[in-house]
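Q: Structure tokens for this one, please.
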Amino acid sequence: MPKFNLSYTQLFRHKFNQLVSISLFLLTLTIVLSWSWILPSYTQTPTPNIQSRQVIIQEIKDYAERHVENDKAMDSRLMIDLYEKNSVGLTTPEITKIYEEEYTRLKEAKDSNLWEKINDDLFYGLGWFAALALLILLIFKEVIQGWLTYLFNTFGKWLYNQIAGFELFWNLSLKRYKKGLINKHEQLKIPFRPNRPLSLQEIYVDLQFLEKANNEPINFSEIKKYNRLAIKGQPGAGKTLLLKYIVLSWAREKLNSSSKEYVPILLELYRFNEIEISALNMEVLKQKLVEALDRDDFPKANSFVDQSLEKGKLFLLFDGLDEVKGLIRSQVVQAINDLLDKYDKCRAIITCRAAVYRNDFAESVEKTLDIKEFSDRQMRLFLEAWKSEMPPDKSIDQLIQTLRDRPLIMELARNPLMLTIVAHLYTQPAFVLPQSRSDFYQESTHILLNQWQNNFNQYKESAHKRRVLQHLALFAQDNASKQQKDDLSLD
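A: Here is the predicted structure, written as tokens:
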């Protein structure tokens, strides 16, 4: 009985140990199998590989480059569709940013390359014909530019001529008129100095006047208070120069505020010499005013002249009554008087050589003034403009002293034209001022004519020579007969 019990107990332990061993094995197997399933699922989301991310980014940039090269529009949607489900962790905003920044950079670089644009637009867009046209343009660039400039200017001038007369464009026309006056009068052309004009602003000296009625001296600044004047003087005394200075000062807006309200028109009265005596009247005079504006770049100004006369806004400058033919002079005087009588608000100055004037405008003007001879001070101011042309061994002071040593020549030189001739001749290194008037006339005439001939015969037409010679002759004639009242016309 005891033996049986021992065997049974051992058997039970043995079975129990087997069961425990099997259970441990099964438990271990279960754990191992479980980890084998867990580990693979964990390794499916590894840390992104940096090299793989750069590859994807470069692919996106390559797309951007191809799109730019092929002139394709930016297509961010395509990039999102292609790379939204990427394996390197790029988000949709990152994909969009990479693509768009690269596209924009490449596009700007391409657009900044001018030759690339020409290559694209011409060679591929318009073909070789357009490229050939471009080559021709480059070769003949200056010729074509000049031709286009000429066409543009011609069309612009034509268009301006069509619209200048309309009231809407009068401000523009007046600006052009001012420029025309400046271009015409800023340089004083002297017949015996070809291609060597003088600056009117520098050469001009304020004139002094004598009132005919009481022989009282009047300064240039004082004449501005008179609306209408008749001014007379010797040939070359500065009558024309005065009127040119007035229009130039107005064009440069250097006049006082009251004078700015008037538009000056300078009309040379010799222009009436071409008109038949039967046709001379106030309407013809008005047409001459229109033509004067036209010559200085204000075309078709008929309405402007009519309205400005009615409103009293014109400053009428009639120059050189003595240059009108004797046969028609009275008709010209009548036309001017009629115009001034009808349009009594307009300002006016009429100039005439003293020996010819017959008090023709006594009823139309406030004052009749005589231009005085240059004073010593005026002569020095006038000669200052010649300082730069004096040779090294001569000076303005020496010239003035030389004139004082020759009283007869000094008297001649108090006339602006004669002083101009003296100054011009004195700038010649070898010239010596003569002692007598006759020697001065002879030598100056000889030198001036030789200079004309030496300048390639630029002045071989008699009109150019005759102009100065007439002034010289008239000056000598008027001075020789100051006490006489003969009508010394140019007829």
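A few notes: The CA atoms of residues 216 and 329 lie 29 Å apart. The mean pLDDT is 81.
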